[in-house]
Amino acid sequence: QLQLVESGGGLVQPGGSLRLSCAASGFSLENYVIGWFRQAPGKEREGVSCISSRGGITTYADPVKGRFTISRDNAKNTVYLQMNSLKPEDSAVYYCATGSKITSIRMMCDMTYGNDMYSWGKGTQVTVSS
Question: Would you tell me how many other CB atoms lie within 10 Å of the CB of residue 129?
């Protein structure tokens, strides 16, 4: 079982920033594609950003392009999501995920893979409100 732990969520005012972290527990992230997803109340989970195993390829959902940046530090076994210019509509529980058979970041972020192929963290709440 691939275990991931998210952190860094919280309450922030519109226009503010947060950095989320996704740390691997018990395995090395180095060879895995990693994705950030979010789910707001009453809505389906959606892909936010995904990154290739070596970090050279990234993809972003249209609503976050230009505001969010995904990165990874394999030496620290951690993937980050820097979120700037936050909006109330960014409020959601944010999850990171990976999968041993996941190779395409686009398919991962589009959630084209079957749900049983994803290993999810427990999530971290992000609330953007004045």
Answer: 10
